[in-house]
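Final report, Chapter 2: Outcomes

The project's central promise was a pipeline that accepts a single protein chain and returns its three-dimensional structure in a standardized token representation, suitable for archiving and comparison. That pipeline is now operational. To close this chapter, we reproduce one record exactly as it appears in the project archive, with the input sequence first and the structure output second.
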Amino acid sequence: MHHQQHRGPDADVEIGSRPSADNDSPRTGVCADRASGIDTGRIDTGRAAAIRLAAAVATAIGTLRVGAGRGWPGATVIIGNELHRVGFRPLLSDDVAPSAGPGRAALRAVSRPISVIAGLVERRPFDEEWFEHNGSRLRFETHGTGSHVVVLTHGLLLDSQMNRRLAADLAQRGNRVLLLDLPGHGRSDKPRHATAHRMDLYASSVVALLDHLQVGSAVIGGVSLGANVALHVAELAPERVAGLVLEMPVLEWAVPAAAFAFVPMLIGVRAASAAMRPVAATIRRLPRTQIGVLDSFLASAGTDPTEVAAVLHGILTGPIAPAIDARRAMAAPALVIGHQLDAIHPFADAAHLVRDLPDARLVRARSVTELRLAPARLTEVIADFLDEVWARTPQTAPRPARAGTRRRGSGRPAPRPA
């Protein structure tokens, strides 16, 4: 069985008029020296742009110091000799500026993008494993430990990296969060036939993951495609679903807009696959930034066009969501997150879903990107909802693994290379 653990580095960088600490870390490649301020040629790509941006004004301002630390993004940023916690705050406060000096206006201009970029980098540890289901090898990550299990799935053509920061935050609240790369996505196997890419079959992959880990029941959630997969799980195996977290679900009212967007994409991918294939291969060689949502889009752009076409074809020809009668029979408590100004994920779909489900509440996101770029508010809402679910859910006994899955500790093929 293949098992990997990813851990965050410990590093500090200082730029400015104060002496820089000698920190040449083999784990991060960070190098600071007194003469030049910083050598960004060897620094992690996810932070290099932010540090280059600050270096031009750092000497006039005072000192900029970025500390990675094991708890990233619980890192520290010192600007103008003042200490600020990045943590889960997406932005530095408005008062970040030296008390005087020519760099005051420049510092205000650069502090926000620096803090936004720093807050998006995710380096907290997680475990990575594979299991087999229906002839495919599927990858998943585990964030945190314990009996309060949450399974989150990603959007169409994306992967688990887009939910990695949310998973790490929820793990700090005592949850064990599993991020599954659905078939055809991320580093899971990518069947090149459309019949493998139906949402109801994706739902069976989620149930197989619970069987693989011998988890009796869990909160099932996801974004867009992942939200619809969670609904199919609740229809397929309601006894395994303790609750639902559904971000941007896609129901009947959005089908015309989805078809309008994805049918031309499918035709274009098939028609231009020969030209797209070398571009995708080049993108796969690009270094990753440790910014989950950005890396997820890079992984999507690097997918072979034949595999992309298979996913789109299967999704378009299969069921989108359970029927209304099936939704009305779902007893699990649900948290539905919707937003406006998106034809494929209209707020009306989220509102209709809340009316269909017997025990559901609706939360309006401020934008389609809020949970990825400024997640503090929605993360707190989700964490509180999970606490309520665990308080009312009796612990269930582990279930035996189904045929076709492999338990922890059993032999299985080596994982695909990164």
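Archive annotation: Residues 8-46, 56-100, 400-418 have pLDDT under 50 and may be disordered.
This record, like all others produced under the grant, will remain available to the consortium after the project formally closes.
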